[in-house]
Amino acid sequence: MHPDSFPKFVSNMARRLQIFILLLTFVSLSFSPQRGVQIARLKYSGGGDWYANQSALPNLISYCNKNLGTTLSAEEAVVEPGSPDIFNYPFIYMTGHGTFSLTDADAENLRKYLVAGGFLHIDDNYGLDPFVRPQMKKVFPELDFIELPYSHAIYNQKYKFPNGLPKIHEHDGHPAQGFGLLYEGRLLCFYSYECDLGNGWEDAGTYPDSPEIREKALQMGANLISFVFNP
User: Fold this and answer.
1) What's the CA gap between 68 and 71, in Å, rounded?
2) 154: domain CATH number?
3) Among 10, 27, 175, 192, which is most buried by a count of CB atoms within 10 Å?
4) How many whole angstroms separate alpha carbon 150 and alpha carbon 89?
5) Distance from C-alpha of 73 to C-alpha of 77, rounded to nearest angstrom
6) pLDDT per position in the chain (231 positions), as tens?
7) For the chain, how many structural domains are there in total?
8) What is the dihedral of CA 184, 140, 195, 177, to 10 degrees?
């Protein structure tokens, strides 16, 4: 090996080792949903209300612990896309109504997280869609969101959704759709669109949703958790 190439070789090996260790961590978590692990909300830049649906995740966590037998931490964490802390959370939830932007450093870190075994659920709370696709292109320039077939495992965990995502709220009369980014055959980002799934997780009375609608939303959310921890 030429002496000038050695520092680059060491750097590449260190990077591969880091990703390998992170992958082992996520694999361990995926087979051990009883550890009381914490799931997180993504605090992104751009001015959008990343903090929307504040009771959604705590209610989903409680539902999963009761109905799936998980012991997820009752409190959600908050993490930024460029933070090294992102690797502490196997499941990250993102929502909002407005603008969303990623710096190059954010995109690079988020890509490493997802490739290493992390999972991102993007839940369009109406108005996020124009920003999701171009910003996620920064993360995976080679990938496009594809609509997942109803036969996909994400719709067929403990709760069955033969027609795909449940429709929680109406906005423009469009059907609810579930899109995904697949990297080397693995679903690492699920995008719920025209659905308002997280609204259905919120406290009863926050919206005029029937108990049946809220139950469907929580069941679909439980499927997402189940898919991540028991692929």
Assistant:
1) 9
2) 3.40.50.12140
3) 192
4) 27
5) 9
6) 544 544 444 344 444 444 444 544 444 444 344 457 999 999 999 988 999 889 999 999 999 999 999 999 999 999 999 999 999 999 999 999 889 999 999 999 999 999 999 999 999 987 899 999 999 999 999 999 999 999 999 999 999 999 999 999 877 778 999 999 999 999 999 999 999 899 999 998 888 889 999 999 999 999 999 999 986
7) 1
8) -50
Q: Which two tokens stand for residue 12?
A: 């590449």
| Residue span of the structural domain in which 115 resides | 3-229
